[in-house]
Write a structure and sequence with these properties.
Largest sheet: 4 strands, mixed
CATH class of the largest domain: Alpha Beta
Number of helices: 5
Helix content: 40-55%
Strand content: 5-15%
CATH superfamily of the largest domain: DNA Methylphosphotriester Repair Domain
Strand order of the largest sheet: 3-1-2-4
CATH topology of the largest domain: DNA Methylphosphotriester Repair Domain
Structural class: alpha+beta
Number of strands: 4
Shape: elongated
């Protein structure tokens, strides 16, 4: 990897801007994660950096079940849910309540309201 010192700094800061640019693997656990993974930080001596999930898996590591580095990021998942909520709002004849909308999306009403506000600047 080109700049392991900068990558380690991104891991320590849980910098989501580096998600998708690399993954880090922990030798002691056999797991690889996104730079923004909220899991406990490993010792630097146990960490190796890989270009992507496929490279980490080829090296014998398995994906973290907390940050799911081989799938959509949590931010992408929330973006998709907010987009689905927008489509439901547009297609509904009568405006659904927040509780009804949240039930259709699969989130709690408060979580949907926070995610919607954070991504669109508006409340549902």
């Amino acid at each position: 990897m080109p700049d392991s010192a900068r990558y380690w700094q991104a891991v320590c800061e849980r910098d989501a801007a580096f998600d998708g640019r690399f993954v880090f693997a922990v030798r002691s656990t056999g797991i690889y994660c996104r730079p923004s993974c909220p899991a406990r930080r490993p010792l630097r001596t146990n960490v190796s950096f890989h270009a992507d999930a496929a490279a980490a898996e080829a090296a014998g590591f398995r994906a973290c079940q907390r940050c799911v580095p081989n799938g959509q990021s949590p931010a992408q998942q929330l973006d998709a849910l907010v987009a689905a909520a927008c489509r439901l709002l547009e297609s509904s004849e009568a405006t659904p309540t927040l509780e009804q909308l949240a039930a259709r999306i699969g989130l709690s009403p408060s979580h949907l309201a926070r995610a919607f506000k954070a991504r669109t600047g508006l409340t549902p």
